[in-house]
Amino acid sequence: MAQRGMGNMGGMNMQQVMKQARKMQEQLAEVQDGLKDIEVSSSVGGGMVKVTATADMKLTSITIDPEAVDPDDVEMLQDLVLTAVNDVLESAQDAANKQMGAVTGGLGIPGMM
After folding, report:
1. What does the chain look like in DSSP terms, one character per residue?
2. Domain ranges in the chain?
3. What is the pLDDT of residues 64-74, one digit of tens each?
4. The domain defined by 8-104 carries CATH number 3.40.5.10
5. pLDDT per residue over 37-50, tens digit each?
6. CA 4 to CA 105: how far, in whole Å?
């Protein structure tokens, strides 16, 4: 029985597969580069704490209303900041996943967000 050549994978030419992989890799790189331009925000405590980040997981601003600063209740302010940061990072990850999914078609590619 003759061995099947490495150049043919189930009717797909290996060269075609490599070309498609390179194209997807280029598209992923473009999307990853563009994540820095996608901004998401979170506001908690009735707007007392606002946090903004980009989809590449960088915090860009934290705004704290002066009325949220109560020296007798620092824990509340800490909780508000923590909640806002976690919320905005989750939104940033969701935005990144959405952008990456548009390129990968929902494939679970290891190492990609």
Report:
1. -PPPPTTEETTEEHHHHHHHHHHHHHHHHHHHHHGGG-EEEEEETTTTEEEEEETTTEEEEEEE-GGG--TT-HHHHHHHHHHHHHHHHHHHHHHHHHHHHHHHTT---TT--
2. 8-104
3. 999 999 999 99
4. no
5. 999 999 999 999 99
6. 30
